Amino acid sequence: MRAAAATGTAEVVVRAAVRAGLDLKALQTYAARVLVAVGADERGLGIKLTSDAVIRRLNRKYRGVDSPTDVLSFSAGDGVDLGDLVISLATARRQARLSGLSFEREIHELVLHGILHLQGHDHASDHGEMNRLELKLRRRLLDAPHAEV
Fold it and tell me: What is the Cα–Cα distance from 45 to 149, expressed in whole angstroms?
């Protein structure tokens, strides 16, 4: 399945390689809102929803970690597109269950997290800066009474 739409002059494309159980159009709309909120609405974004097996292979190949993860970010590096996110649906479901969030909310948080990584933020080395920004954007985009998910 695929959903796409333009934001600014860029396009957000969502592809599900496995049965997602999500409204892909709503996810695409949310991702476009995140791009606007972080000032990247002129840049294209791809989101691939996949399995633990696929993301594990990618994690091993690109990060040297032989286990599944929730989200991987791949910068386009071309100055035009922001890049691509790969999200494991199985890992997101587990994390949602453990944290008491809805599956959709967990996916939305992973999209926000991945987009911040694509913009160069790194929670492993920035002394909490990315985390503070992510929490601020969650409140604005997901928690506010007017927030549309």
Answer: 18
Q: Element (H or E) spanning 118, and its range?
A: helix 103-118
For position 75, which CATH number holds? Answer: 3.40.390.30
User: Distance between CA 88 and CA 49 in Å, rounded?
Assistant: 6
6-25 confidence digits (pLDDT tens)? 555 568 999 887 777 899 99
Q: Which helix (H) or strand (E) holds 33?
A: helix 24-37
* Residue keyed to tokens 């989200």: 71
Burial class from Cβ neighbours inside 10 Å (0-12, 13-18, 19+) for residue 134 reads middle
Q: pTM here? A: 0.89
Residue 38 lies in a domain: yes
Structure tokens at 143: 């928690």
- Find the domain containing 113 and state its range: 2-143
